[in-house]
Amino acid sequence: MMKKRISDLIIKVTVQHFNKILILFIVLSSYFSNAQWLQISSGTAEDLNSILFIDNNTGFSVGNNGTIISTSDGGNNWNIVSSPVTLSLNDITFPVATTGYIAGNNGTAVKTSDSGITWQSLNTETLLNLYGVYFISESHGFVIGENGLILETTDHGSNWLQVPSPSVYILYDIIFTDSLTGYATGVNGTIIKTLNSGSTWSSLSSNSSATLYGIDFINKDTGFVAGANGTVLKTVNAGASWTKINTGIIESLKALYCIYPDTIFVVGNNGIILEMMRTNGWTRHWVSTQQHFQSVFFLNKDTGLVAGNNGVLFKTTDRGKNAISEKSNRDIFRIKVTPNPCNDLLFIELENSIPEDKGKIEIVLFDNTGRIAMKNYINKGVTLPAGNFSDGIYLLKILSDGESIYTEKIVIAR
Q: Do residues 244 and 148 both lie within one domain?
């Protein structure tokens, strides 16, 4: 994936109605010094389906072919952990720091009693795929999966009993907001709920037919669900009703995490990372991958990790604070980036003037290792010759006086 450093970029100025300097840089990675998301080596090329931390240092991610990896330094370095199975592992939970459980395909369930150093297989007496696992105590927990399956254990996973389910569809994710109240989500807009510690479950109306992959709650009343076709649903009354939130995304959204009352992160296919703040709407965080993200976890309000296909891991320590909101600046400044995909010349134009308070504008080009390939101040628009770039996916950012105001993914294909 290494691409040559570009040293002979030709810039041609062609813009109108501009009274301020523009900053523009294209990146194929987030390795530069002030990046909001940094790619981390996971030590595996297997798809990673779930990630979780039990404290600020110790974390685990699980994935295909029995993959279990662990970190002891907050996610900076990862090691392969011996696994008792070779089937795909789909979800992980730790009710207490010493005891953890994993659910996987063909009825797979594994357990650790020594904080993840060693893992042992459990007998669930099913061959159905299990996609979610949650324990409300060290001994009492649930796994969910195909055909609406819900299995319950009250003895640390030694024995499992099937609980009647109101759904026949695949269930993907499960969460409890207290010892009594739990939710699960799945195919065809399925959301089910229990009010008695999982003894019985009932269906909720989601007003959606999308596959719902992930669920998380801010408190006992306010929760969110993420799903196919950019679906995000919100409840403020403990699931009695759900409203759809427009994300502007068509990709499947696989997981979400509420980091505090007014901020959630959602991740999904094609490298999607979305942040929603109550007052500012959606912000997309751009990273140098199109891999599908499957899971997200935040250690605290600023430090988080996302995991996905082909062993991809990204980490932020500043909550991606440099990420750009696209929702308004394209219209405000009438930004045009054409053609995209590009095979010859890429034109960037701002039809409206930049406000006085937006400051100076600079153009900077990074190669895929984060090295500066080109840097220049301008006061007009630009034409970038695609011939100076290797084929691939790039990130176009427009900044002003050091502040990012717009970003767009660019495809170069000749």
A: yes
- Helix (H) or strand (E) run with residue 404 in it: strand 403-412
- Whether residue 209 is contained in a domain is answered as yes
Q: Are 216 and 195 in contact (CB under 8 A)?
A: no
Give the least confident one: 88-97, 123-132, 397-406. Answer: 397-406
Q: Is 109 in contact with 102 (CB distance < 8 Å)? A: yes
C-alpha dist (Å) from residue 33 to 30, 38, 75, 250, 275? 8, 9, 18, 31, 22
Provide the terminal-to-terminal Cα distance of the chain, rounded to the nearest Å.
17
**pLDDT category, 376, cuts 50, 70, 90?**
low
Q: Is the pLDDT of residue 15 over 50?
A: no
Question: Based on the domain organization, do 46 and 121 belong to the same domain?
Answer: yes
Domain assignment of residue 1, yes or no:
no
User: 305 and 336: one domain?
Assistant: no
**φ, ψ at 243 (rounded to 5°):** -120, 145
Coil, strand or helix at 414 = coil
Assess whether 283 and 386 both reside in one domain.
Answer: no
Number of domains in the chain: 2
Lowest mean pLDDT among 75-79, 113-117, 285-289: 285-289
Q: Are residues 365 and 301 in the same domain?
A: no
Boundary (domain end) residue, out of 316, 345, 362: 316
**Residue length, the chain?**
414
The domain boundary residue, chosen from 286, 316, 346: 316
Q: Which domain holds residue 119?
A: 38-316
Average pLDDT over residues 36-62: 96
C-alpha to C-alpha distance for 324 and 240, rounded to whole angstroms: 34
Residues 6+ apart with CB under 8 A from 331: none
Specify whether 145 is located in the same domain as 109: yes
Tell the residue number behind the tokens 């076709």, with chain if given: 229
Q: Which residues contact 138 (CB under 8 A, 6 or more apart)?
A: 95, 96, 99, 156
Bridge-based pairing state of the strands 191-194 and 100-104: unpaired
pTM: 0.75
* E strand map for 46-128: 48-53, 59-63, 68-71, 79-80, 89-93, 100-104, 109-112, 120-122
> Is 5 among the domain residues?
no
- Assign 148 to helix, strand or coil: helix
Beta strands 362-366 and 372-377 are: antiparallel
Q: How far apart are CA 133 and CA 103, in angstroms?
A: 6
